[in-house]
Structures are given as C-alpha cells and as structure tokens.
Amino acid sequence: MPVPRAELKLVRLLSRCEALAADRRGPDEWRLEKYVSALEEMLLDLKKHSSKPAPEVLNEYSRKVDFLKGLLEADKLSSSSEKALANQFLAPGRTPTTTKERTPATKTVHLQTKARYTGEMRNELLGT
C-alpha cells in the first residue's frame, strides 16, 4: 500500500523540526514553534485520513510531536532548574524518523538539551 502524501509531508516536516531543535536556537527563533503547530494540525488530518498508517506509527508520530511541543514549553521556563526538571519528563521518540538515522533524532535532542540545561544550572550555581 502506498504511503499517503499527508504522511510524507508530516515525516518531512518532523525531520526538519528535529533538525531545528538539535541546533542551538536563539531567543528570536520563531520557525520551530510555527512548524510544531503545523505538525499538530497535519497529525490530526492524518488521523482522519482514509488511508491512515498503522496505529503504532501514529502513536510514534504523536510521541515525537508531543516531545517537540514539550521542548518548546520547557524552553520558555524562567530558571534553568525548572527547565532541567521539565526536560526529564519529556519522552523522546523510540524509532528513527528517517532511514538515514541510526538513533532517533528526538533522543539526541533530548540529551543535548539535558546537557545544556545542566550547564546552565552549573553556571548559575557557581556564578560563572
């Protein structure tokens, strides 16, 4: 059975969002937030589509979108300790988004943000 066009679009945007999240973002970066909201809409459309993918695949897409959404919400918190705590509760995706990935990009992003927030907490505590 061929992959629906809506799923292809979702996977492309999802991998782009994962790449944007992996790069260190500045405070004036707005694209990721817009892309994630578009991902949510595309996911809802895909769930209503007549030739939707298997439920396991849809759950994985939902998990990755929720992870990116939680990452954006954690980034908006004021203190680095709150950010680190919120980051601990985020669940990255279990499977790679594209066939080129060896490990899931969301897992890599999760580890990068964890290290960044830990570094921020260290700097706050030590006053450097």
Largest sheet: none
Binned, the helix content reads: 55-70%
Number of domains: 1
What is the C-alpha radius of gyration, as a whole number of Å?
A: 16 Å
Strand content: under 5%
List the helices and strands and how they pair.
Layout: H1 5-22, H2 31-48, H3 55-75, H4 80-88, H5 105-126
Main location: endoplasmic reticulum
GO molecular function, one term: SNAP receptor activity
GO biological process, one term: retrograde vesicle-mediated transport, Golgi to endoplasmic reticulum
Brief overview, please?
This protein is mainly alpha-helical and about 130 residues long. It has helices at about 5-20, 30-50, 55-75, 80-90, 105-125. It has one domain (about 5-125).
Structure description:
This protein has 128 residues and is an all-alpha fold. The chain has one domain (5-126). It is 69% helix and 0% strand. The protein is built from five helices and no strands. It has helices at residues 5-22, 31-48, 55-75, 80-88, 105-126. Helix 2 (31-48) packs antiparallel against helix 3. The protein is elongated, with a radius of gyration of 16 Å. 23% of the residues are buried. The mean pLDDT is 85.
List keywords for this structure.
128 residues; mainly alpha; 5 helices; elongated
